[in-house]
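Q: I'm writing a short explainer about tRNA N6-adenosine threonylcarbamoyltransferase for a general audience and would like to include a description of its predicted shape. Could you first generate the structure from this sequence?
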Amino acid sequence: MALILGIESSCDETAAALVTSDGRVLAHRLAGQEEAHRPFGGVVPELAARAHVEMAVPLVEAALADAGVTLADVDAIAATAGPGLIGGVMVGLMTGKALAHAAGKPLIAVNHLEGHALSPRLADRELAFPYLLLLVSGGHCQLLLVRGVGDYRRLATTIDDAAGEAFDKTAKLLGLGFPGGPAVERAAAKGDPRAVPLPRPLVGSGEPHFSFAGLKSAVLRARDAGIHRPEDIAASFQQAVVDCLVDRTRRAIAAIDDDVGALVVAGGVAANQAIRTALAALAESSGLAFAAPPLWLCTDNGAMIAWAGAERFGAGLIDDMEVPARARWPL
Ligand code: KG4
Ligand code: ZN
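A: Of course. Here's the predicted structure. Afterward I'll give you a sentence or two in plain language.
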């Protein structure tokens, strides 16, 4: 059994966690930066990087204390090395490198997307490869065939905005606040999903790709028409996203010839209840098992990075100190 320290800093959450290779989360600490970014209605990279500098080491210390261990007890240190806002990624990766160097521990550079992709296996230790993953976050919207640790095949991606980006922009357009996804979900609960006719970009098309830019423009037009309640626009928007995700995922399921046993959803947008419910129904009607991590494990956190580190460590995948921080890093 190995003990892995994970550090996450690619966007606006600084996080540290201690996770064992048999899937126990001994500690996880997280510091959000919502207050810092709220006045700007979005994440300001420079502010994020400064906050990561302040929080990274204290969070690691707090996580170690929570778990009742010291750095000497840790078998490896995993840190997000990208993709993400480069200033923040550098802070977390350099923190990981410094700790690994000082304690004489192996370093594991984790792709943030791999953290999301493997997180369902931390939540459900029975979940076996291969599985079909819908990865929906603030920066990405992809369908991936997850065949094993480090073995991913991308089946589809967005041709413009990510799903989370669409939620965030819609929240901004409707004045619902920041962060956008949960704000839209709350407003949608008070609205009618059939009230506002909105497009379903790419629904029915042959390739399982995604597109959300047209939907965002339609939300803007609906708002400016001045006849709809924001709650009804939010509910109609959320329903349009659900319909797009379900249609595109159904298309991918139909095209897969690998022996996939489960449909899995992960990433921040996977915290959305309407999306989880619709995908669970799709899995059932497709004869697949369904898995979605608990909400805290969907949005960015340190445990998913520690877990991806544990999976990589188990596969003998460690990195040297030269490994770079990357703003872009496709899985
Ligand atoms: O995975 P994540 O925490 O960070 C990235 O890697 O991007 O995802 C953040 C995204 C944001 O766009 C946020 O608005 C969205 O996930 N999100 C949600 C919900 N909670 C977070 N979107 C819809 N419904 C939610 N409940
Ligand atoms: Zn993420």
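A: For your explainer, you could say: The first helix runs from residue 34 to 37.
Q: Perfect, that's easy to follow.
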